[in-house]
Amino acid sequence: MPLILILIFCSGIFSLNYIEKSEITIAKIMCIQNDLTSIISQKNNVPNTKTFTKNKKINIMKKVKFATFLLLFAIAGTEISAQSLTAQKIIENVYYRPTGADGTSELSMHLIDSRNNERIRQIKQFSKDFGKEEKSIMFFMSPADVKNTSFMNWSYDDASKDDDQWIYLPALKKTKRISSDSKDDSFMGSDFTYDDLGDRHPNEDNHKLLREETIDGKQCFVIESTPKDGDYMYSKTITWVIKDIWIGIKKEFYDEDADLLKVLTVKKYEKIKDYWVISNTEMKNIQDDHTTKMVLSNIQVDIGIDDNKFTERTMTRGL
Q1: CATH number corresponding to 92-317
Q2: Residue 84: which pLDDT band, with cuts at 50, 70 and 90?
Q3: How far is Cα 45 from Cα 65, in angstroms, rounded to an integer?
Q4: In the predicted model, is pLDDT for residue 249 greater than 50?
Q5: Helix (H, G, I), strand (E, B), or coil: what is residue 22?
Q6: 152: how many CB neighbours lie within 10 A of its CB?
Q7: Where do the structural domains in the chain lie, given as residue ranges?
Q8: How far apart are CA 260 and CA 116, in angstroms?
Q9: N or C terminus of the chain: which is more exposed, having fewer CB within 10 Å?
Q10: Cβ(284)–Cβ(262) below 8 Å
């Protein structure tokens, strides 16, 4: 999973293509069965029935039975396929989608209020996959009031472990660990919470496939996820996952009263070194009429970032 990124979503079915192919196969089998049955009927109605030997009748009946077996097998196979790709598996495909061993990018954070006033913050960020954990760190480059502020996140491939997060505030010259009680706070005035910047494990939620839907010409699975922890800040989320490439192109967040709180939309994604990377997102707070846009540039992957980049010492030292 990529950077801190926002990009969190980055969740018995079968694709419409499979269904169409199965229907064609079934139709062909039914035609074969009908043709064979017709042959038997025609042969049984000819005047000289003795020419149609007993062995031939048995042979054709076997073919009819075999065609019937193929028909039933095709139907059963379709049902098995429908159950093989579960909502849990879809979200796992999103979570484990390859994004490279490490990566870096420049990030523009646009904060837009209800009057369309806009503030822009420039950030440099890094991420690295350590196998059982992923570490991300970001440094605020401008404007002056947030310059040298840094944030670090460690996500674990273990649903029982919470993300570890730290923020360094240069005015205080102190690194602060983000407590569990503070993870629903806004991150640097944006529409993302600290928890949104983490990497939520699929096993932390129960997932349900609602339907299949098309967004901007892309076929998507629509997945509803409800937290196993009743105290979690969102009562549920709904994610639209693009088939085959496993990108969550849209995500709705619902508050504790089950009212729509905010919507995350992927505006752009691109392929870099064979990895699908989300490069432009928008988080819209419906209730506050506030928007945060994240635009990535100068994206690089698999560049060999040093492990020591992701430490509290690096946070205080800066770039």
Answers
A1: 2.50.20.10
A2: low
A3: 21
A4: yes
A5: helix
A6: 25
A7: 16-86, 92-317
A8: 21
A9: C
A10: yes
Q: Which residues contact 113 (CB under 8 A, 6 or more apart)?
A: 289, 290
Look up residue 78 and give its two tokens.
């379709």
Q: Are 11 and 87 in contact (CB under 8 A)?
A: yes
Q: Which residue has the tokens 């945060």?
A: 292
Torsion 30-31-34-37 (CA) sign: negative
Is residue 67 within 8 A of residue 33, CB to CB? The reply is: yes
> Is residue 191 scored above 70 in pLDDT?
yes
Q: How confident is the model at residue 85 (pLDDT cuts 50, 70, 90)?
A: confident
6 vs 209: CA distance, rounded Å: 23
Those residues with Cβ within 8 angstroms of residue 222's Cβ, 6 or more apart along the chain or in another chain: 209, 210, 211, 212, 213, 238, 239, 240, 241
| Amino acid identity, position 247 | I
All residues at 6 or more sequence positions from 194 whose CB lies less than 8 Å from its CB, including other chains: 165, 178, 182, 183, 184, 185, 187
E strands, the chain, are 102-112, 118-129, 133-142, 150-156, 164-169, 174-177, 205-215, 218-227, 236-242, 248-254, 260-272, 275-285, 290-301
Q: Tokens standing for 282?
A: 């928008």
Q: Which residue type, as a one-letter code, is found at position 17?
A: N
Altogether, the residues listed in the chain come to a count of: 319
Cis omega (within 30 of 0) on the bond before 143? Answer: yes
More confident residue, 6 or 312: 312
DSSP class per residue in 103-135? EEEEEEEEEE-TT--EEEEEEEEEEEE-SSEEE
Residue for token pair 């009680």: 181
Enter the tokens of residue 45.
Answer: 């109605």
Closest CA to 312 of 176, 163, 129, 145: 176
